Amino acid sequence: MNDRFEIPARLRNTSLALIGVGVLTLIMGAVMLLSGNDMDKTRFWAVLLHDSVFFTFITGVSIFVQAAVSLAQGAWLTAYRRVPEAIGANAWIFGTIALIVTLCIIFGFKDSHGVNTIYPWVTPGTDKILLGKKAFLNPTMFIGFSVATVALWGFFGNKFRSYSIAQESAPKNDTKIYWKVFRLSGVFLIVYGLSQMSTIPWLWVMSVQAHWYSTLFSWYNFASAFVSGMSLIMLWVVYLKNQGNLQLVTKEHMHDLGKFMFAFSIFWTYLWFAQYMLIWYANIPDETVYFKLRQHGPYSVIFYANFIINFCMPILILMARPSKRNYFTVTFMAMVIIFGHWLDFFQMIMPGPLGEHWHINWYEIGTFMGFVGILIFLVSRTLSKSSLIQNNSILLKETAVHIA
Amino acid sequence: MAIKKFAVAAYDDEDVLFPAVSKVRRSGYKMHDVYTPFPVHGLDVAMGLKETDLHIAGFIYGLCGTSTAVGFISWIYTIDWKINYGGKPHFSLPAWIPITFELTVLFAAVGMVLTFCYLNQIMPGVKKHVFHPRQSDDLFILTLELNNHTSEADAIAFLKSTGAKETSIQMAEESWWYGRWDKKEEYEALNA
């Protein structure tokens, strides 16, 4: 079966326009915010950190999905496996952007008092708590884990894709590559467990409030990333379907993705609540400081919006079977979920550095648009390089008759 | 609860059963049910059964569970027996969420199981007529419901033409009953 994706001029122009907006925002931000007061400077870097981390996480999910499905020998993904492959193969680019941003923050950013307001552990001074955490929270550890993560994600993301393409020219019914991918998937799950599910959210996200910690923070980050990463795959599948590609994908496959969006919204809520309730119940000042700013302070709007968008909307709209099989509802909900989890990451990162001086304004929106542009540009470029159906895959027949 | 007349056909192959089911649907005979020793994929679609509404019942049971939990706990802690737990407000919703969640799941699960049993007429101790002793072993049993105007011979001939290995006419109680198998002897007398 031949299923090539030619990038439509409209998509290319849209992505380039979005990148243009992003670059313009970055230049304007650099001119206006970097010359401003401490809060403006902090805002400049914190927003870049927020978007680059968010996009790294949601693209990295695609590699995880491939690995998990390969290991479970699932066939439901094969019909559109090229989509997570294309997203996952570009995760390292967002990772590199995040790495550059975090390194700039660690080495090139201090406010007028000589304090790093985004990563306070860089300049611990005489703070006993920060000095106590120095064994883990220090630039060497940070760079070590971050570089290893980005490199390994890049390696595995591209490896899965190149094996998948190599399968097309392999002899018919040859299972050699299939088992190679199977073994690599197991290795990647360990890598993913040690990066996305533990160290990376600690270092990149949780350490903006270095005095505070939560033991399930990384798991909660993963849930947030996973549900928006699934929504991202859904958006691409719907888009390609509308372009007339992906003939093997039926409503049954959409239903599967819809179930992931639904179920992991509930999973996210479970972790969100587990973290909240224990802190609320124990009422220890060290811990409640996290929710004081968010629930009662200047972020309460985002705090409650977060709950409504990421829990109430998915559970009510996606619960019924027909709504998971309807192109409009799943597209709408995918966009809502991605936006909702973007807000979730916003309220994880911003209160630490910015306190009450937060904005969602031209700079935040422009940066977000820029990253969306980069994502569309990279993923569509990768998608157009190979057939959209993994010909010769031993799971091809099973995926064609798949019933959700 | 009524004793009715059934034409029963036994098939020994799925590949014969599926065409037979669609022939029955086209013929105008009233299909009572198909009994198989194992779940046969796609048979519900072939028989034209409509999608179950069990999950809507589940949603309603779940809502009942949620409101029972929230209603009962909030009545206890805000009206009936106020207790100060570590300075928390009397109406402390976060602390009740786990219980509420559990009761929602419990109500939905138990309610759905009972509803499922009711819809499928299965329950411990409940009896149902068995059309063929091998329907849970190695044969697929298709049953047609006949009335006083249908010709038994035509129905049997029709079932034979669809590839049935065995056919019979049986008088049987169509739904479930609770109690003894005693009725079975009545059937045997009727069927004789």
Overview of the structural elements:
The complex is a heterodimer of chains A (404) and B (192). By secondary structure, chain A is mainly α. Chain A has helices at 9-32, 38-72, 82-88, 91-108, 128-132, 139-168, 176-205, 217-242, 251-282, 285-296, 300-317, 321-324, 327-349, 351-354, 362-383, 396-400. Chain A is built from 16 helices and no strands. Chain A starts with 8 loop residues before the first helix and ends with a helix. The mean pLDDT of chain A is 93. Chain B has a four-stranded antiparallel sheet with strand order 2-4-1-5. The mean pLDDT of chain B is 90. Chains A and B meet through helix 9 of A and helix 4 of B.
Radius of gyration of chain B: 25 Å
Characterize the overall form of chain A: globular
* Class inferred from helices and paired strands of chain B: alpha+beta
Main interface pair? A-B, 8 and 8 residues
Number of helix segments of chain B? 6
Helix content of chain B: 40-55%
CATH superfamily of the largest domain in chain B: ACT domain
Number of domains as seen in the coordinates of chain A: 1
Average pLDDT number of chain B: 90
Low-confidence stretches of chain B: none
Percent range of helical residues of chain A:
over 70%
Strand content of chain B: 15-25%
Write the H/E string of chain B, N to C: EHEHHHEEHEEH
Give the quaternary arrangement of the chains. heterodimer
Task: Give a summary of the structure in a few sentences.
Chain A has 404 residues and is mainly alpha-helical. In chain A, 73% of the residues lie in helices and 0% in strands.
List keywords for this structure.
heterodimer; A: 404 residues; mainly alpha; 16 helices; globular; B: 192 residues; alpha+beta; Alpha-Beta Plaits; 2 domains; four-stranded antiparallel beta sheet; 6 strands; elongated
Write the layout of secondary structure elements.
The complex is a heterodimer of chains A (404) and B (192).
Chain A: H1 9-32, H2 38-72, H3 82-88, H4 91-108, H5 128-132, H6 139-168, H7 176-205, H8 217-242, H9 251-282, H10 285-296, H11 300-317, H12 321-324, H13 327-349, H14 351-354, H15 362-383, H16 396-400
Helix pairs in contact in A: 1-15, 2-3, 2-4, 2-6, 2-7, 2-8, 2-13, 2-15, 3-6, 3-15, 4-6, 6-7, 7-8, 8-9, 8-13, 9-11, 9-13, 10-11, 11-13
Chain B: E1 3-11, H1 14-27, E2 30-35, H2 43-47, H3 54-80, H4 93-120, E3 126-127, E4 140-146, H5 152-161, E5 166-173, E6 177-178, H6 183-191
Antiparallel strand pairs in B: 1-4, 1-5, 2-4, 3-6
Helix pairs in contact in B: 3-4
